Structure formats: structure tokens, C-alpha cells
């Protein structure tokens, strides 16, 4: 239809410009390395040029993530970062397999750096240019809503609040057949769509009968109109909603989480093993003898403190720490408090600097913990808080972590009130529902910064 007939050209145009930017990146890299206007295209450069140009559109086709009009720029960034990483790995792999190629690694990395900068600038400009274009009334989709009620009103408010998505609401069809913006009864929908340009029909399930929906879908299939069904799940948290199919039966999974995906689990586990190995080999290996000697000289007792904590799936595991207290009989029931007489002098320093947590990287390495995740609690506290904090047990859908979003935001140490624990759980749930490897990296960075700044709750 005329109002959006050029939509199909947006993606090919964008991809074409990205290929031009890739060519420009290669030329800039060659110019930088050779410091000359005359750019030598030797055999290695030619192979790299061909492989790069072919692999970028190939990856775009294979891993095409159909963008919706309501797509957020944060997701564009994640998609772009993933695409650039895959492109770099693919190019390096192909170049390594073709052994005759003699090509500088500096040239490859420099090209990727130039391309990354240019691609982000382009996608930023393209993303917001399209939104501005749609906001001004171009490239829009005509829609009608079947069913009139509170859910329909919310949908109408959404479209009016976001003109940049390019949706034009023509009106509603309802059994009452009259009222503000109501174009007629449901049975008059077909004649209206035949006479007017309609691109999408939204059916609000609470207000429409099953037999009517089937008729609407059959009609739309023959008239090139898309149909979207809206169920009323406003009382539920649907952050990770996922549609599954049991043969021909659609099932809505309302507890789907990013780490339910096997690929995401593998990425997180791979990161945990690499990160914990680096800490154990390059920090723990030389720091352990010093800490162990200090603990032994300061007080009697073991070097390590082991305690049963609640892990993933509510299973228990032995959590390791450097011992920071005098040996006592209350460690299983009482949290450390400010000025706690049980804490040794060396233990006070270890807690302030979070060095006491270092042995937990062995928990990470063996798979009972993760570098980032909700902090594990004593079994007694898990039992207590699960009774008074709503959805407390949701935090055990994933492995506990050495640090987490709650800790990075300042909720660490002693939990004095139920409100404090509720705030922790709220952040833990946000982390679980929004997990990404980039969120993990952000939390690690925030944790490192807080260690340098110091935390008044570290005691």
C-alpha cells in the first residue's frame, strides 16, 4: 500500500550502505598501515577483501532477527555487537584455513575497529531517521482493533504515545456498534477492510468470540492483512513470555527466562570457567599463602570457612570463604553485624576488601556458583525470607553469584529489615529476567569500582 510501499527497501538499502562502509574500513586500514595514497592490493588483502564482503551479508541473512517497529535501540546495539563479533570470528577462521594467505593481524583488527565505529554511527542515524520519518506521518501502517474495552483503550494509548512506531489507529469494531471511534459491529469489519486500506487487525481476545476470530483470520489471509491476537495478561509479569508449540497447540510460557536457553547457559558457563581460571591462576595463587599466614597468626582455627548455602533449584552446596571470625557456634544462624565481636582483626580487613570471597571462585569453577548472580543465603535465612518476601524463591532459578546486581547497587552485607531484602529480591528478579553477558560485564565493572571506592556495608 502507498503509505508504506517503500518499507521492503529499507533493509536492503541499509545492508548495501553497510557493505560500502566495510569497503571504506578496509581502505582506511590499508592507508593507515602503508601511510600512502597508493594502496597496494596484494594477494592476502584481496582474499580478506572478498571474505569480508561476502561474510557480512551472509551473516545478516542467516541470523536475520526480524526487526519490529517497536524495536528499542538497546536491542539494536546488542544485535550489532553480536554480528560484529561473529563477522570477526568467521573472517579469522576462513583466513586461517587458507594457509597461503599472509595477512597482518593488525590490519584485520584495525579494519574491524573502523567498521565497528562506522556501523554504530550508521545504525544510530538510520534508526532515529526512520523513527522521525514515521513520527511526521510517513511510512505508517493502518490498523483497526476488534473488541472495545479497557484492554483496547490501553492499546490505543500506546499507539498515541509512540507515533514514531508508525501505526495509525483507524478505529474499533465491537458488538455495540456505536460510540467514540467505533466504526461498526464486528460483522461490518470485512466490508470496511474491502473499501479502506487496512494493514493489520488487532483482536482483543476478551471481547471477541473464537468463531469470529477464525472468520477474521480466513478473511485476512485472502486480503493480505496481518492479524494479531491480544490476550489480557496484565496482572502477570510477562517479561520473559515465550510462545511454544505442542504440535498444533500454542502454549504461552509466562516464566521463560534468558538462561532457559541452552546457548545462553553455555555462554555464561564458558565465561565463568575462563574468568574463575584467570582469578585462581593469577591472583589466588600468590595471595593465598599471604592470607593463610595472616589468618593463622591472628587466631586459632581453619583457613577456610565452609557453610551450606542455597543454590540453583533450591539445592544446597558448600560455599567457601576465608575465615574472618573466631570459631563460634552462631555462624549458622546469625549474620555478621557492624562491630561484631566475632570478627578478627585480619577478618575485618578481608571483609572490607572482599578478599574473603576469593575462594568462591573455586565454587564457580566447579559449577555450584557463577561469577554474577543472586548472592546465596544461609539455609535458615532462605526458609525465613521465603515466607515473608513475595517471589523470594524466584532468585533460585539461576546459580548464585559472587557478586550480583543487588550488590553492585549497594545492597550488600547485613539485611536488617524485610524491606531491605525485598529490594534485593526485586533487583535479583530484574537480573534473572534481563540477563545478558553484557549485563554480567557491567555488574563486574560496577563491583570493581565499588571495591576501590569502599562500601560502608562491607563488614
Write the layout of secondary structure elements.
Layout: H1 7-34, H2 43-62, H3 73-97, H4 105-135, E1 141-146, H5 150-161, E2 167-173, E3 182-184, H6 189-195, E4 200-204, H7 210-222, E5 226-230, E6 242-246, E7 249-253, H8 262-298, E8 304-310, E9 316-322, H9 345-353, H10 360-366, E10 370-372, H11 379-388, E11 401-403, H12 405-408, H13 418-433, H14 437-453
Parallel strand pairs: 1-2, 1-4, 2-3, 4-5, 10-11
Antiparallel strand pairs: 6-7, 8-9
In short:
It contains 14 helices and 11 strands.
Q: Key features?
A:
alpha/beta, flat, two-stranded antiparallel sheet
Strand content: 5-15%
State the helix count. 14
Helical content band:
40-55%
Low-confidence stretches: none
Distance between the termini: 66 Å
Structural class: alpha/beta
What can be said about the biggest beta sheet?
5 strands, parallel
Radius of gyration using CA atoms only? 29 Å
What best-fitting shape do the alpha-carbon axes yield?
flat
Strand order of the largest sheet: 3-2-1-4-5
Q: What is the H/E string?
A: HHHHEHEEHEHEEEHEEHHEHEHHH
Note down, in words, how this protein is organized:
51% of the residues lie in helices and 12% in strands. It has 459 residues and is α/β, with parallel strands linked by helices. A five-stranded parallel beta sheet has the order 3-2-1-4-5, with helices on both faces. A two-stranded antiparallel sheet has the order 6-7. A two-stranded antiparallel sheet has the order 8-9. Helix 2 packs across helix 3. It is flat. The model has no long low-confidence stretch (mean pLDDT 84).
